[in-house]
Amino acid sequence: MPTILVVAIYLTAGIGGAVLIGWYVVVAARLTQAVMLDLRKRIFLHTQRLSLEFHESYTSGRIISRQTSDLDTIRELLDGGLNELVSGVLYGVFTLVALFLIDWQSGLILAVMGLPLFLLMRWFYGRSQVIYRESRVISAQVIVKFVETMTGIRAVKAFRKEPRNDDEFGELAGQYRDVNMRSIRLFGTFEPALMAVASVSVALVLLWGGGRVIGGALEIGVLAAAVLYVRNFFAPLQEVAFFLNSYQSATAALEKVSGVLEEEPTVPDPTDPVDLWTAKGHVRFDEVTFGYSDDRVILPHFSLDIPAGQTIALVGTTGAGKSTLAKLVSRFYDPTRGSVTLDDVDLRRLHPKDLRRAIVMVTQEAYLFSGTVADNIALGKPDATMDEIRAAARAVGADGFIEKLPDGYDTDVNKRGGRVSAGQRQLISFARAFLADPAVLILDEATASLDIPSERLIQDALQTLLADRTAIIIAHRLSTVAIADRVLVMEHGRIIEDDTPAALIAGTGTFAQLHASWRESLV
Ligand SMILES: Nc1ncnc2c1ncn2[C@@H]1O[C@H](COP(=O)(O)OP(=O)(O)OP(=O)(O)O)[C@@H](O)[C@H]1O
User: Fold this and answer.
1) CB of 328 sitting under 6 A from ligand 1
2) Ligand 1 geometric centre to CA of 303 (Å)
3) For residue range 437-477, what is the model confidence (pLDDT) as tens digits?
């Protein structure tokens, strides 16, 4: 009868254990996936919200490594590490208690051996922290190098940079291998040391217990059980060490991820925004001082008044601060001192929605997102109808080439055959801006990379695009300047000339000289 009872208990425990494990696996997986989903979304939303200043200094490769390898490391801990820790600790505690109950002296020996065990664990924990931090940094550098090379593949090929890149990547990948080897070597030292502590503990229990068995103070069966318990105590510690290993690796990754999540936008949304539903487009710089860093001022005490509806052309030597001025009008950055206003409202107080609707910047790169041509134009007004999209394309003269594309407006811009030229890309981005219909439009060197026929097409498109709105054009080509009402010549963050194109050409200043040499180059 007792045998049947024992067997029944054993069976019940076995089946109960299996059911619990099954349940645990599902619940743990659900929890892990929920945490990962949350983290993944938070990193994306947060990095997208961060200001341009962050993105101009934090390379895209580093952001990618936060989203990929760092998150994977955290997932590995949640996936496997936690149950190892829980089962390891429970197993260890139960074994120790059981050992004390059957023979307290053996239990005491094991408790004393806890000191070298603790020291060993602490050493391992400290070392692995250093190694995994290093590993996260190098792993990010490997991804950065890869992303940078692939993003700049045209420049890489043009300058035959492949061999140098191979060397640099090989060097980084080698460093990554080395740091991984160090973590494996650490484990390789830790495991035998753990086994040595276990063996010494068993030996001590055997020695002390053996003496007592010979003296008749202890039964041989109890000694055998004590030795088994001591061995059992150490067995799950390896699992705990595995946990510590993934824990350290995940902590290093989490440090990196939270570093990004703790970044605050340097251009914060206003707490008490002013509504400006229909902006007129009056832009003013009032005693603005700005620098990207504290030690270098780019725009010193800069003041400028652009009445609504005026078209301004910004001209000047490279590095004069033209793009910086445009970034301040778009509120990609805030001034260090002074203010930039739209219709007399400080941009810092404008509701972000109103700001984005009122001020649009078209950059030289004219980025097209994956999707159709129509999708890309509709970016300017997400709820636009197909008729509005077509009308916008027609207005800037983009409809001709779009209709010739394999699927017209439904052509996927990233698919073969859907690829468009630089000028066509520019026209699509003009159509996008036209549809957005902002009160203020900024064009940053929009025509710099075009050939003459495309440029002419674009000049026509520009005329339509700029009508009835405030426009700031940064142009190196003087042909673009001709359509402006007013030309500003910038140098070292200051305006040195400010007049109509005709008046400046007639004068003897910098612009007149620039214009004269441009005319000569045309002959
Ligand atoms: N993100 C940045 N971080 C630090 N310095 C910057 C940054 N962007 C520009 N600068 C510096 O600010 C100065 C003005 O740059 P800006 O791009 O405004 O000149 P620009 O007149 O538009 O020149 P270009 O005609 O060559 O585009 C330059 O000296 C440049 O080095």
Assistant:
1) no
2) 19
3) 899 999 876 555 556 666 677 777 778 888 889 999 987 77
